[in-house]
UniProtKB/TrEMBL annotation:
The chain crosses the membrane at residues 52-72, 93-115, 121-145, 165-189, 201-223, 612-636, 642-664, 685-710, 722-744, 751-769, 775-794, 801-819. Pfam families: ABC2_membrane_3, ABC_tran. The keyword Nucleotidyltransferase does not apply. GO terms for molecular function: ABC-type transporter activity; ATP binding; ATP hydrolysis activity; lipid transporter activity. It comes from Paramecium pentaurelia. This is ABC transporter domain-containing protein. InterPro entries: AAA+_ATPase (IPR003593), ABC2_TM (IPR013525), ABC_transporter-like_ATP-bd (IPR003439), ABC_transporter-like_CS (IPR017871), ABCA (IPR026082). Residues 266-493, 839-1056 form the ABC transporter domain. It is found in: Membrane. GO terms for cellular component: membrane.
């Protein structure tokens, strides 16, 4: 029953998730095919019959390729995440059979209606078997792939090629026909169209279905041994395990630690994981306790994600032992995995489901039917009011809450969270912190990773800091800071004499504690632990009173300990000293244009060299032409048939090839690369000319291949005429593809639909209309459609068709130019006369509709060599303002003014990158686009070293891609650099190196920077000026960091955690001005509070064992942010 419920749950989810708009696109090719079929009469000879001889065997099977590709991509994606249970396979199988039957019915009804077939029942049955066999074939293909994108590309190519096996029947090689379902159905339908019977066709269809399903079963079990280790056999029935019963067993198996305070949830013994020669986890030992929160910290590549994947069963260990509640994970994997919840770093939500439906689906998958469980988590996550919202309508913070709820629903006892608060603002982070603390109290074990060290310090009971696959230090935040001796920084200021300096140094030499660098002539800093601080308090008190020395005390955070532990990876002053190559860009417009065109050609070469899908689009047309010549050409009789055949297959080849040309403009608009190139000074003419030139070289390859093949074929046109015709046709088909690119919003849908649209709508359909209407629109169609004009040129050597291609080229290129300028390349900039500023924004207003105003009267100024930070919560309008500055959106009102010759570089939140290039190649490309002509290679190698970047983009993690995006913005000598959350996803060491590099760039390159970030420490560290945006408005004009903290900060806060209620009154008596919450007391200290006296009081409270711990937080920018941020949340 549980098994059937899971199949039903996935079917329910799949159908809910079906995007009718996308499914409508899948119906486009069948609809055009049906329309053409309706125009051809049964038994028709000549052109109509030849059309049918290619349309039926190739395009009827191709109607299902798009759906099969979708199944392949989605199933391989789930398979790569180890979701490979029988119920999932069955659900995917049924879902795509239903979708295929819809498409099949459309074609089948047309065939039965138009052709008046006598064997209707047999046709329907065979068509059903064909659909089942093709879906089974798709599952079979999935066993060979772990990469979903590659699976989709190769699967489409492979299934398209299989359609051509039908032509083997023309050479009496029927055994090739019956290998695959595509050629079987083509062979069967073509024989029926010719009124021929096919014996045993039902047997062949059943045989094909059986072979594919059996082969899938065999290969699944043979090739996927890792899956078999982590799951039971694919076809073995899995016993239902009630998680409540397992909880009872856990109570009996609790293992208390040495303190008797908590029991062990997870025990890891000598865990080892190796990838080839790389050791990811090195003999790791760890105990994780129930009702506690463990945080795993470390740099990118330290082994954090590997451990999470091993502990959740997504990855097999090399050796070692893992125990959950005393049970071996290897032996009881299925039972234990029912207790595990996992929240991935990115939100993996179903856009078409509501919040409630999303949780309901997860609950159904875990076999829990109770709605009360869902309601409980909705309330705990503060999502009750959003339960009927579609998931894509939620804010970033609420999406993370829902993703965490998915990890909890259904009885999860151990929760793994991979960066649970990534990409959300500090106020939303604090809401999630409270939720996680509440979850811990209901007997849950939480293990999470984060790059926010204040988050680790706030949430964690224990922290494990990893380095090179090993845990370097483990314990509570306080213990780690004590062990690494980074407790407090004591600063002595206003030192007027060398005698005072000597007294201070003598005091600290006795303690043997480390001193920091002397930042100013009258300041000395020392780092102390708590015991050292208490031991010298009386001497400090004396120095303060008798020597008039100003004392400041700062409690260091976990970040100080983390940086100290990883100091060998930290590059501070060295970066600023070395990052000094003088970069020079050419000011000559023609030279810069040549650089930019060469960069576009360079990009096209490497993308084509490394992109398997584009290579298929180039090879497949040539392969089809070759097969057509080998299998079909010699069987034709008469000049008319030969010319029709030549025209048909050349047109089909170019229609497939056209997907290469439509790919570039759509992809670069989709990834926002087009706007980025414009910001860097690339003109529209340069972009179009460079892109066109690269594509024209590609079409020349196919042109030369056809020319060589034409030397072997008797054609109406001479080889020289054919060559000239194809050269001119290349101009028109590329420009037509560019203009048609605005028909599509997605690169994937364009690649899938446009080649078939080109052939059916722009080649077949005009000819069918002409046959019916006796050539009334020949001239019009010839000027409209490049493929139709090519068809006329190939069949008629008496007329020169060059004019058609030239007119098409001019018209479609002009149309593309207008469309791009109108819909993509907005122009918000105006000239700025004030030379004291590089950028000035006055009264900018923007709204998507009249009722939805996003920005209201924004005013900003950016001075030379300054960093301006835009701060605000999610949804405040920061990214919208960035898009206006970078011309990605057009403002409704106001002005954005720049100095002349301003070159802008940007690092956007969702940065588009050419994934087939390496980081070095991309940086070199953008350096040439910016016109850099000197020291380019030196600068690139230095940036790559500092940011630790290497390899191809497609193989990089999200954090590595962010580094590349930042490097692109810094390369060259841009005047203004826009950085939209540049450090998102980076570990603290990488983040600090990046921040130092940004500062170095401003100092050395005379650049100005606009920065958005959710890391307030980063904003405080980098910014010269700050502007808050709250609900699209500025609550106050931009100000310096110091001004904001002094005016809006909460001051210095002393937080004391009292040990018991009895001690509460004594602590309150010592600090009368306080706020209390339970056993936590918060005291607001003035900026000039008496440091020695405060230390004295804290020392006495500790000695009397009244308090457990205390923290001293300096006034900071985060206090200002939280106060302003709550205004927006209150308004919402």
């Amino acid at each position: 029953m549980h098994f059937n419920n899971q199949i039903w749950a996935i079917l329910w989810k799949n159908m809910k998730m079906t995007n009718m708009k996308e499914f409508g696109k899948e119906l486009f090719i069948p609809s055009i095919t049906v329309f053409v079929l309706l125009m051809v009469q049964k038994g028709e000879q000549g052109t109509g019959k030849l059309f049918m001889s290619i349309l039926v065997p190739v395009y009827i099977p191709s109607c299902f390729v798009g759906l099969c590709r979708q199944l392949l991509v989605e199933y391989v994606n789930e398979k790569s995440n180890k979701y490979r249970d029988l119920y999932k396979i069955m659900a995917w199988f049924i879902t795509y059979i239903i979708k295929s039957l819809i498409i099949g019915s459309l074609i089948l009804i047309t065939l039965l209606y138009k052709m008046n077939f006598q064997q209707s029942l047999e046709i329907v049955f065979c068509f059903m078997l064909f659909i089942l066999a093709q879906v089974g074939q798709t599952l079979l293909l999935s066993t060979f792939f772990s990469n979903s994108q590659l699976a989709g590309e190769f699967g489409s190519f492979f299934q398209t090629i299989l359609s051509t096996f039908y032509f083997a029947s023309l050479y009496q090689m029927e055994y090739l026909v019956f290998i695959c379902p595509q050629s079987i159905i083509s062979f069967y339908l073509m024989n029926i169209l010719d009124n021929n019977n096919v014996e045993n066709i039902t047997f062949y269809c059943i045989l094909s279905l059986s072979i594919h399903l059996l082969a899938y079963y065999f290969l699944f079990n043979l090739l996927e041994e890792e899956c078999m280790k982590s799951r039971k056999c694919l076809w073995r029935r899995q016993n239902k395990t009630d998680y409540v019963q397992l909880e009872d067993q856990m109570e009996m198996r609790r293992q208390y630690d040495e303190e008797g305070l908590a029991f062990t949830s997870i025990e890891i013994v000598k865990l080892f994981k190796q990838y080839g020669d790389v050791v990811a986890v090195d003999n790791l030992n760890l105990k994780i306790y129930s009702q506690q929160i463990l945080c795993i910290l470390g740099q990118n590549g330290a082994g954090k994600t590997t451990i999470l994947n091993i502990l959740t069963g997504l990855l097999e260990k090399t050796s070692g032992k893992i125990l959950y509640f005393g049970k071996s994970f290897d032996k009881k994997r299925d039972e234990i995995q029912k207790l595990i919840g996992f929240c991935p770093q990115e939100n993996l939500l179903y856009d078409q489901l509501t919040v409630y439906e999303t949780l309901q689906y997860q609950s159904m998958m875990r076999g829990i039917d109770s709605n009360s469980d869902i309601d409980m988590w909705l309330n705990l996550m503060q999502l009750q009011q959003y339960s009927n919202y579609k998931t894509h309508e939620l804010s970033g913070g609420n999406k993370r809450k829902l993703q965490i709820a998915l990890a909890l629903v259904g009885g999860s006892q151990i929760i793994f969270l991979d960066e649970p608060t990534a990409s959300i603002d500090p106020e939303s982070r604090r809401q999630i912190w409270k939720i996680l603390k509440d979850i811990k109290q209901i007997n849950k074990t939480l293990i999470f990773t984060t790059h926010f060290l204040d988050e680790a310090e706030e949430l964690s009971d224990r922290i494990a800091i990893m380095k090179q696959g090993q845990i370097k230090i483990y314990g509570s935040s306080e213990n780690i800071k004590k062990e690494l001796e980074v407790g407090f920084t004591l600063t002595f200021g206003n030192i007027q004499s060398s005698e005072q300096q000597s007294q201070i140094k003598q005091l600290f030499n006795e303690l043997e504690c480390s001193s920091g660098s002397q930042l100013e002539y009258d300041n000395i800093k020392y780092i102390l632990n708590q015991n050292q601080l208490f031991s010298i308090v009386e001497r400090v008190y004396e120095l303060s009173n008798t020597q008039n020395i100003k004392i400041q005390l700062i409690q260091n955070t976990l970040e100080a300990a983390y940086l100290k532990l990883n100091k060998d990876n930290l590059e501070d002053d060295k970066i600023i000293k070395e990052y000094s190559f003088p970069i020079k860009s050419t000011n000559d417009i023609k030279t810069k244009q040549l650089f930019q065109i060469s960069a576009l050609l360079y990009k096209k070469y490497y993308v084509l060299k490394r992109n398997f899908a584009l290579q298929l689009m180039l090879i497949l047309p040539m392969l089809i032409l070759l097969l057509a010549y080998l299998f079909g050409y010699q069987l034709l009789q008469g000049q008319t048939q030969i010319q029709l055949f030549v025209s048909l297959f050349i047109s089909q080849s170019f229609s497939l090839n056209s997907s290469i040309f439509i790919n570039t403009p759509i992809l670069e608009r989709e990834l926002k690369i087009r706007q980025q190139l414009k910001q860097m000074g690339m003109s529209q003419f340069t972009y179009i000319f460079g892109t066109f030139l690269g594509d024209y070289f590609i079409i020349l390859i196919l042109t030369i291949f056809i020319y060589i093949l034409s030397l072997q074929i008797e054609m109406l046109l001479s080889s020289e005429q054919l060559l000239i015709t194809l050269i001119l046709f290349g101009l028109s088909i590329i420009s037509f593809s560019y203009a048609a690119s605005f028909m599509f919003s997605s690169n994937q849908s364009a690649i899938k639909i446009f080649p078939v649209f080109n052939l059916l709508f722009c080649y077949f359909l005009p000819q069918m209309i002409e046959l019916q209407l006796q050539n009334q629109f020949t001239e019009l169609f010839a000027y409209m459609f490049p493929l139709y004009a090519l068809n006329l040129a190939l069949k008629d050597d008496r007329q020169d068709y060059s004019i058609y291609f030239i007119v098409q080229f001019i018209f479609y290129m002009f149309l593309y130019y207008i469309l791009e300028k109108q819909f993509i390349l907005f122009e918000n900039r105006q000239d700025l006369q004030d030379r004291n500023n590089k950028l000035q924004i006055q009264n900018i207003q923007f709204g998507y509709t009249q009722n939805k105003q996003v920005l209201k009267s924004i005013d900003l100024q950016l001075s030379p060599q300054k960093i301006l930070s835009l701060l605000g919560p999610n949804g405040a309008g920061k990214t919208t303002l960035i898009q206006l500055i970078t011309d990605c959106l057009k403002s409704n009102w106001g002005s954005i003014m720049y100095n002349e010759n301003t070159i802008i570089s940007s690092c956007q939140q969702s940065q588009g990158l050419w994934e087939d290039l390496t980081a070095e190649e991309i940086l070199y490309l953008f350096a040439r686009i910016k016109g850099s002509i000197r020291n380019v290679k030196n600068e690139i190698s230095q940036i790559l070293r500092i940011l630790s970047i290497k390899g191809k983009i497609v193989n990089m993690s999200g954090g590595q891609k962010r580094k590349v995006a930042l490097a692109i913005s810094l390369i060259g000598d841009s005047n203004i650099i826009i950085l939209d959350e540049p450090s998102n996803g980076l570990d603290p060491i990488s983040r600090r190196n990046l921040q130092n590099m940004i500062q170095a760039h401003v100092q050395k390159r005379n650049s100005s920077i606009i920065l958005t970030t959710h890391d307030m420490d980063e904003a405080q560290y980098l910014s010269d000026n700050i502007s808050f945006i709250i609900n699209g408005q500025q609550p106050f004009p931009q100000q310096s960091v110091t001004q904001l903290i002094e005016q809006y900060g909460s001051g210095i806060l002393l937080s004391i955690r009292v040990k018991n209620k009895e001690a509460l009154d004594q602590v309150i008596q010592a600090f009368p001005q306080n706020q209390k919450e339970g056993l936590l007391i918060v005291i607001k200290l003035g900026n000039d509070y008496d440091v020695p006296q405060t230390i004295r009081i804290l020392k006495n409270l500790c000695q009397e064992d009244l308090i457990g711990s205390f923290t001293i937080k300096q006034a900071n920018l985060e206090q200002v942010f939280l106060r302003q941020c709550r205004k927006q949340y209150n308004e919402d």
